[in-house]
Amino acid sequence: MSKMFVVSGRTIVEGEATAKLLVIKEPISFYGEVDASTGVYRDGRSMRNRIVIAPGVRGSTVGAYIIYAMKKCGVAPKALVLGNIDPVVVVGCVLTSIPLIIVDSVKLKHILESISDECIGEVKALSMSSATLKIVC
Q1: Does this model's pTM top 0.85?
Q2: I need a surface site. Which of 5, 30, 39, 102 has the fewest CB within 10 A?
């Protein structure tokens, strides 16, 4: 039996994406944990063409450049879903037109405990207010 989650969020950068997820259960740092030329996260999994879902981000202001470099190298994620807003990631996503949505951190924590990289996500961030994240596992 498949699981499905549908949750509302807040659009930060508009756009749509459908892809397999890359589930990261702790806050990520783009600087030092992601190879900008390959899109590979520190644990060996690729962000390329994935919807990256994580509780948040941490780290350096270089993160915006890492996101930009990933896009230029063709290895960027299709969208980012986070539990809190980070101005550095916002800048990176605006520069690269990567959809970015923020989902309530409590709801996101529950979802992160129930999903895997094999799940398919759909992000619809079509207005500057509401967004929808749909996940099917």
Answers
A1: yes
A2: 5
The number of folded domains in the chain is 1
> Do residues 99 and 79 touch, judged by C-beta distance below 8 A?
yes
Which CATH number is 37's domain given?
Answer: 3.50.30.10
How many other C-beta atoms lie within 10 A of the C-beta of residue 24? 22
Beta bridge partners of 133: 7, 123
Residues noted as catalytic: 60
Residue 49, both tokens: 């063409």
Question: Kind of pairing, strands 100-103 and 4-13?
Answer: antiparallel
**Structural domain span for residue 59:** 4-136
Q: What per-residue confidence (pLDDT) applies to 46?
A: 98
Q: Tokens 């101005």 — which residue? A: 87
